Structure formats: C-alpha cells, structure tokens
Amino acid sequence: MFVLAIDTSSAAVSAAVGPIEDPHALVIRTQVNARGHGELLAPTIADCLRSAGVTPAELHAVVAGVGPGPFTGLRVGLVTAISIADARGLPTYGVCSLDALAVADRRVLVATDARRREVYWARYADGRRRDEPSVSRAEDVPLEGCEAMVGAGARQYAEVLGLPLLDGDYPDLRRLVAAAAERVLAGAPSEPLTPLYLRRPDAVAPGQPKAVTP
Amino acid sequence: MSEPLVLGIETSCDETGVGIVRGSTLLADAIASSVEEHARFGGVVPEVASRAHLEAMRPTVGRALETAGVGLDDIDAIAVTAGPGLAGALLVGVAAAKAYALALDRPLYGVNHLSAHVAVDLLENGPLEEPCVALLVSGGHSSVLLVPQVGGEEVTELGATVDDAAGEAYDKVARLLGLPFPGGPPIDRLAREGDPAAIAFPRGLSGPHDPPFAFSFSGLKTAVARWVEGRRRAGEDVPVADVAASFQEAVVDVLTAKAVRAARERGVGHLLLGGGVAANSRLRALAAQRCAEAGLRLRVPRPGLCTDNGAMVAALGAQLVRHGASPSSLDIPADSALSIEDVLV
Q1: CA distance A209 to chain B (A)
Q2: Considering only CB atoms, which chain B residues are within 8 Å of A40?
Q3: Are residues A17 and A91 in the same domain?
Q4: Which of B45, B54, B99 lies at the smallest CB-CB distance from A203?
Q5: Contacts of residue A76 in chain B, CB cutoff 8 Å?
Q6: Please, are residues B204 and B195 in contact by the beta-carbon 8 Å criterion?
Q7: What CATH number corresponds to the domain at position B180?
Q8: Residue B189's Cα: distance from chain center in Å?
Q9: What is the pLDDT of residues A93-121, one digit of tens each?
Q10: A48 within a domain of the structure (yes/no)
C-alpha cells in the first residue's frame, strides 16, 4: 500500500513515497530552501515517485504535515496534498508537523522557527505530545518536564532555551508517515487538511482617509 | 482531433476561479470569492486571500467539473495564472495546478493573467484572426496592448499606468465618499444619478507632450479628495452622485480616448476591452460610442467574464495547446511581477 507524504512546515521542502507497512523502504527527498517551496515541491514529488517506481495511480493515501509553520510554504504543501488526492481519489491524513520531530524515548521540547523572533513549540514524553502546539518567544516557552530539545527553532534559540540539543532540525518524513500509519492501514475516513496557523492574519481596519489639504 | 479540454485555475487576487473550456467553448466558470472578508479592511488583505484560496480550491474544482459534466480524467491540460498578482495567493493556484498536472500526467501551462483577460473574449465573440488593440483595466492594472493574435504568445505593451490602476482609484474615491469596497460597482450605480459634467476633474497625462498611451490616476484621486474636503470644510453638503459621475467620467474619458487613438494609429480594426473595470457600464457605453465614431469594432465580454475568473485562464491555455506551445515545467515560480509581455512561463 503506497503512500505519498509531504511536509512543508519548515525551511525544508520534503516529500516521500513508499509502502506504508515499511517506513524504512520510503524514498525520501528533502531540500532546504525557506523560499523555495512553490518551485521545489512538485519536482521533488515527481523525483520520489520515479525513484520509488510508483505511479500516481498506484498511491493509496496522502499524508501531510499540517504545521504549525510559516504560512506561505505550509499552504504549498497542503494544497499540493489536497489536489493530488483529489486527482486520484485518495484519502488524506494530517499530522502535526512537530510530531515528526519528537524522539520517542525522550522527554523533549520540539521547537521550530516561527520567524518574528518566535518559535512554534510543544512538549513530548514517550513520543506523545503533552501540549497543544503553540507559538511564542523562546524565553516564554515552559521547559518543565523536558530533558532535551530538537528542531531548527531549538537550535536557533539554544542559548535562551538551554537544554541539550538533539540532531534533526526538520520534520522527519518516516516519523510523519508512522504517525498516520494506523489510520491509513485501517482505512480510516479521509481527514480535511486544516493548516495550524496559530496566528491571525496581520490586518487592521483603516480609520478615516487622511486629508490631502493642509 | 477534437478541441482540447482545458481546466484553468486563477488565484491572483481574491477570487478562486476554476474554469473549463473545450477549445473556445465555455463549459464551466466556478468562482469562490473572499471579497466580503476584505471589505472591512478597505482593500484585499493578501494573507486573508491566500487562506481563502486554500479552503476553496478543491470545492471550486469540484463545482467546475460538475457544471461541465466531465471528470478530471477527461481533462487534456491544466492552465494556471502564474502572475502577475499577489505572491502568496498566486502560489496556492500554481501549486494546485502542478499537483493536478503531476497526478493526472497532463501538461501544465503557467500563463499571464493579463493575456488571459484578453483571451476570454474568444469564448464569447469567437475567433479574431487579426491584430487588435486591447484595453485592460482592473484593480491592479491599466494598460493598452497591441495583440497580434488573441490567444497567441505575442503581446506588446503600448502604455500603462504610471501610478494607480483605474480600479484602485475607484476604491480610493469610494472610501472617501463613504462607499463600500470594492468601489467600482457603487460608484457606477451612484454615477447614473449624477451629472458627469458637474465638476471638471483633471484628465491625467492628456497634454500634447505626454506619453500618448500612458495613464495616471493618482492626481485625479487627490483632486477628488481636495474638492470633497473643500466642500466639507465650508460646511456644505457633498453632492455624492455628481462627484461619482464626474470622477467616473474623467477615468473613462482618458481610458477610451487613448485606447481608440492607439487602435487608429496602429491601423487595427478592433478594440477589445478586458479586466474588472471593463464591467463598468459607463466605460462600456463610452467605448461603444467612440469606437462607432472612429469606425472601430468593439469586442467586450459580458461583465461576469471581465472580472477575474478561471475560464479566462482555461481559454488562454486552450489557445496555447492549439498553437502547439511547449508546456511549462513543474518548477515554474509564481511571479508576482510577471511582465505583461510574457504570455507563457
């Protein structure tokens, strides 16, 4: 049962194709380019399909990281996942992108870059997320119960956060697929891929027009 | 071979448009608009528009297919607006189009939004196998183009606005007069009750030494603001309908005069109108009158096809397929500043 997995919640543009039953057999391609999601994602998926010897018609499901992450790149991944699934009549399954960074046997803080001097974060124990994903300044992230940290945001604010830093800056597609495997294998109902924006759009209603005469 | 069945996707501003055409025959034109979400901000908020595109994409594709009575497997090619427009908004449509092209193994055509506004005319008015001058006016653009072949790969820009687009001037004047966003429809309605000669607002770049086909609407907008402020400061009522009519007359006077002049100087027999402002009733009426006086034929699609839509993108895509144009690659960018002369990316 072949799956396509996509995550564009970080500076990494990542896709994977392979059998859901065996995450180690996934063909994974990742390019790090914070402004390149729109140009890089579709060719990266095409490359995964080719390398895995799988055609789009042979896919059974699409798994996507739904963020949180910078909006523009995140949307590229989600609209791509939604459209490929629509074209082939496939179910879609969403996974919180932070879950694809958590280390199963450690109590970790996962923190990714949210720009504007903030991080997206959540705490994990035994591979389970203990918080709803949040966005805040690194100095405001609670560290109780964490023995280590991981993610590009943790690396960027390593001094402020002060926990031992683990390897792996970006979501790992093997973990992403594993997080959805049970649902995919059980033929669970398709899920809407709703982005975790965690911030409102920047927009303010205008006041009165400024006078042009002095 | 039968005419190509093309699905077109448009997300350059606040409309999620998906159209389906077979050759020059319109089969579906599905639109989801986020305009109401922008109204209270007095203009399109890019992030709000981008979020709405993501939500609307799949349902809008579904509605277009249903209306056309075809399935995705029947589609021969995917066309998409690659620019110009709002970067984040364009990106949603471009990514979706690439995904459909990849998953269906069909060619992708990343096309120019402005050329699509020209090509949509084919759906209503049939082939035009001779050069024409096109006047494209919208919230983001005001240009006079020389188009050797509608739906072809060549376009020459004869002139464009040096500051605000015509539609932008409508939005700003509407806000000044306390009218809702977008400003075109309420000003058009109000102007019918006003006197277009009541106030002599300036005609920008209309002097003998000005560039013949360039536009400027920023000074006009300021002139309207000064006039209205003067009235208010004097404690007098503002004759809103007269202001609307006189402002509108200044805009459409310059637009039509320059477009007709371009057509005559270039020796072409047709003037084509496109873009959201081409839905304006006074622009359509004055263009018709001046074209008749100049012996030109006017081609203008119905208002619903002048504003942004997916059918226009599909229409241009179908022409490119017909002319054997090379498809776009899967790594094309969404180009917010795409040149008007780049028809296909």
Answers
A1: 6
A2: 331
A3: yes
A4: B45
A5: 91-92, 95
A6: no
A7: 3.30.420.40
A8: 20
A9: 999 999 999 988 889 999 999 999 999 99
A10: yes
